[in-house]
Specification:
Blueprint: H1 3-9, H2 15-25, H3 29-37, H4 43-69, H5 77-90, H6 97-100, H7 102-115, H8 122-141, H9 144-156, E1 160-163, E2 180-184, E3 189-193, E4 201-205, E5 212-221, E6 224-234, E7 236-237, E8 240-241, E9 245-249, E10 261-266, E11 269-272, E12 281-283, E13 289-291, H10 299-335, E14 337-339, E15 345-348, H11 353-385, H12 392-419, H13 436-442, H14 447-469, H15 480-498, H16 503-533, H17 538-544, H18 546-565, E16 582-584
Helix pairs in contact: 2-11, 3-4, 4-7, 5-9, 7-8, 7-10, 8-10, 10-11, 10-12, 11-12, 12-13, 12-14, 12-18, 14-15, 14-16, 14-18, 15-16, 16-17, 16-18
Length: 585
């Protein structure tokens, strides 16, 4: 990253948070040691040095554990599950680190993707399910008794799964669940049921080997739905499916078969009242439901906290996979000789123009995406450590990270495959695991759904600006579209001013972005209005104009990344063209 781009980035959103996080978690051991040894060292500096040394010691131990564990592929998903159970028992990463040291969780996941590249994506997916979705949801929603259970599960290496998606309510559903948990006050229990085949839990990672499960079900109290709620249940007892639990295998996949994926049906399974994760709600014996605490967030909104961390982890996983594939392939093409005219001169494959151009483009995108993911992670970690909720700008930035990192990885890895011939067909090159990126696209919130939400939110902002003009030409002959662009630009400039950017810097940053966003929003709004004039329903209109919605989302997402780390052009210098490797035969 160039000095100018770095300087701009520190003035972006959450710059103070990012600086504080980097200073507290990323200081190098050598710098910390030399500083603490000086006569003017402060207690804070000594603390930072000790923390850096402790992190380096942990990193070495954790990497060594992974290296030994992943030295050979798991022979079955049972063996893979046993490996994770051992890692959980080791305590090298605590379930509570997601709350107390989230940066350690993210680093642990990145190291795992790097160490396990040769083995495929199965174990890394298993890891995020266990630590983020399963344990993280218990941390977020559980009461004191559930947190005590979580500690016991850590000691015993107990595995869990996260049962949310269903056959008729998958990643494109907007987190709808049809599994029910009906409260029966006379028994003081919940009846967990799968009302029809479409409500079977589907594609539940680690579902065939987990002992526990966090199950999302529609809570019914007094015959009234209270919406999706989380229950911590026994999925197995003494190694066998618990009473009322029916399990099935989703079948063989194109990659990641060391990970078990299950479908689950609940045949009138009775649950004790204590299984409800009750930090924010309770069901009383008199058949009444009551929220707990001042916040009035739905359980789905609270579960969304885990999806935020999961989206960053997925983005980092896809990004790291792409980087590893490019590094390994580049090592091959640097050494692969190709005949060329000119006597005894031979070019290496890396020198072929189209491949050289691809490596150059990939290096620039790598530098920018690495900077962006680091900034978003730091801001999210700060929020998690404070026990706060991410604000709308950070939520949008997380979505942009997930969508863009995954799409870039899919695009670049596909283009790389086209340029290296039969090498991409060989086992052990990494290309056999590229379907991992397909998993990343729909994991933790399908990328298309996230883009639709971004487009919807921007369209609402545009509608507010249009109402301001009342659909007429304001004074001075400015059209509503121009007024909308001006409103978008004014908002962007005001936000830049709040971050102490000069007017010149703010104008340079936002003029093009605001105009592009307003134009895309206007195009979508106009198309929807035309459909409404033809008596189409809102759903039909959105389906008719989905391409314009994704176009708007793409413009917005690019604007978000530019706002955080600068434009793509600022990273061009980070990627020098691959040298034309020539050797004498």
């Amino acid at each position: 990253m160039s000095g100018g781009a770095a300087g701009q980035a520190m003035h972006r959103h959450d710059a103070v948070t990012l600086n504080a996080s980097i200073q507290s978690t990323s200081q190098s051991p050598s710098t910390s040691t030399s500083t603490s040894a000086s006569s003017s060292a402060s207690p804070g500096t000594n603390t930072n040095a000790a923390a850096a040394a402790a992190r380096e010691e942990w990193r070495a131990a954790y990497t060594a554990e992974l290296s030994g564990m992943l030295a050979t592929p798991a022979a079955s998903f049972h063996e893979s599950a046993a490996r994770l159970s051992h890692l959980v028992r080791s305590g090298l990463l605590r379930f509570t680190d997601l709350r107390d040291a989230p940066d350690k969780f993210f680093e642990a996941h990145r190291l795992l993707v790097e160490q396990g590249f040769e083995q495929g994506p199965g174990f890394s997916i298993r890891f995020t399910v266990q630590f983020n979705l399963f344990a993280g949801t218990v941390l977020e929603l559980g009461g004191a008794s559930h947190l005590a259970q979580l500690e016991e599960m850590q000691r015993e290496g107990t595995l869990g799964c996260f049962a949310l998606t269903e056959r008729l309510a998958g990643v494109n559903s907007g987190l709808v669940v049809q599994t029910t948990a009906e409260w029966h006050p006379r028994r003081g229990q919940f009846l967990l049921s799968t009302p029809h085949d479409g409500a079977c839990k589907n594609w539940i990672s680690q579902g065939l080997t987990a002992t526990k499960a966090v199950v999302m079900a529609d809570l019914l109290v007094g015959g009234t739905s209270k919406g999706p709620h989380a229950f911590l249940i026994d999925l197995r007892v003494n190694g066998q499916p618990a009473p009322g639990v029916v399990l099935g295998d989703m079948g063989e996949k194109t990659t990641g078969n060391d990970l078990d994926n299950a479908w689950i049906r609940f045949d009138d399974k009775w649950l004790d009242r204590s299984t409800l994760l009750d930090r924010y709600c309770d069901v009383a014996a008199d058949d009444t439901y009551r929220p707990i605490g001042g916040e009035r967030l739905s359980n789905m909104e609270l579960i969304g906290q885990r999806l935020f961390t999961g989206r960053v982890a997925v983005a980092q996983g896809a990004h790291e996979f792409r980087r590893r594939l490019f590094r390994k392939t580049r090592a091959y093409t640097d050494a692969k000789a190709c005949w060329a005219p000119g006597g005894d001169m031979t070019h290496m494959l890396s020198a072929i123009p189209q491949l050289r151009a691809l490596y150059t483009a990939a290096a620039a995108q790598d530098a920018r995406m690495s900077a962006y993911l680091g900034a978003v992670e730091a801001a999210l970690c700060d929020v998690l450590r404070r026990g706060a909720r991410p604000g709308a700008p950070l939520v949008e930035a997380v979505a942009a990270a997930k969508v863009t990192a995954v799409d870039q990885a899919i695009d670049l890895c596909h283009r790389l495959r086209q340029e290296v011939g039969s090498y991409a067909l060989m086992s052990g090159t990494g290309f056999e695991h590229t379907d991992f990126l397909q998993c990343c696209k729909f994991a933790e919130g399908d990328s298309r759904i996230l883009m639709m939400k971004v487009a919807r939110d921007r369209l609402r902002q545009f509608a507010k600006a249009k109402r301001y003009t009342k659909g007429t030409l304001p004074a001075g002959g400015v059209s509503p579209r121009e007024a909308a662009a001006a409103a978008a630009l004014a908002g962007a400039l005001a936000e830049s001013a709040a971050h102490e950017m000069s007017p010149v810097e703010a104008w340079e940053e936002h003029w093009e972005k605001a105009a592009a966003e307003a134009a895309a929003a206007a195009a979508l709004a106009g198309a929807l209005a035309e459909s409404a004039a033809h008596e189409m329903s809102p759903v039909e209109a959105w389906e008719e104009h989905w391409e314009k919605a994704y176009a708007l989302a793409g413009v917005v997402i690019e604007g978000i990344i530019t706002k955080w780390v600068g434009p793509a052009s600022a990273f061009a210098s980070a990627s020098a063209a691959a040298p034309a490797v020539v050797s004498k035969l």
